[in-house]
Design brief:
This protein is mainly α. It contains three helices and no strands. It has one domain.
Amino acid sequence: MSESDPVFGIFAAVLALAGVGEIVASRASFVATMPRPELVSSLLFWEGVAMIACAAVLYMRQSFDLSTIVAFVAIWLAGAAVGALRAGAFDAPPE
């Protein structure tokens, strides 16, 4: 694939839309019915932000090689970690 191939832009747009969908889902009413709604909501939100960041990386790099995959994994893990930290998943239980 050449660098001017629109496929990367299409994949980036789909990733960004999926990220926006996760952010919208994090604010949806069905999340409140889950066992740990603050954790689920926070994870969905930050995973959506991470997905949008992955879309930006793919759009700017215009390649899908090993370093891009490593960057995706690192961004997604960071999004999951921030989501879990923001929800208090690692806080000490109240006494």
